[in-house]
Design goal:
This protein is mainly beta. The protein contains no helices and eleven strands. Strand 4 and strand 5 form a beta hairpin. It is globular and about 40 Å long.
């Protein structure tokens, strides 16, 4: 059984930083590319960042480029999202997702497994 568990969310002031973690079990982690999505109340779930199986390639949504960094540790089955320069508009539930292919996909339907999410709240 596959488990995807996010952690690291919380309340932070604008300009602050958080590091989200996503621990995955029940699958061969380095067979999967990983992504972070987010969803604010009354909004669609949106793609934030993606990383390939080895960590050699990553991609970011324009609204986080230069502020967020995705990385992964295949020895520990963990993917991270380092978030710096947080803004109130970054407030959302953040979800980690696993995709059983190496290509970048930015729509939720392209992902096989999801976590329950971790809340990030940025105060102004």
């Amino acid at each position: 059984q596959v488990h995807v568990v996010e952690s690291g969310g919380g309340l932070v002031q604008a300009g602050g930083s958080l590091r989200l973690s996503c621990t995955v079990s029940g699958l061969t982690f380095d067979d999967y590319s990983m992504a972070w999505f987010r969803q604010a109340p009354d909004k669609e779930r949106e793609w934030v960042s993606w990383i390939n199986w080895s960590g050699s390639s990553a991609s970011y949504a324009d609204f986080v480029k230069g502020r967020f960094t995705i990385s992964r540790d295949n020895a520990e089955n963990i993917v991270y999202l380092q978030m710096n320069g947080l803004k109130p508009e970054d407030t959302a539930m953040y979800y980690c997702a696993a995709r059983a292919h190496t290509t970048l996909v930015i729509v939720p339907s392209g992902y096989n497994y999801w976590g329950q999410g971790t809340q990030v709240t940025v105060s102004s």
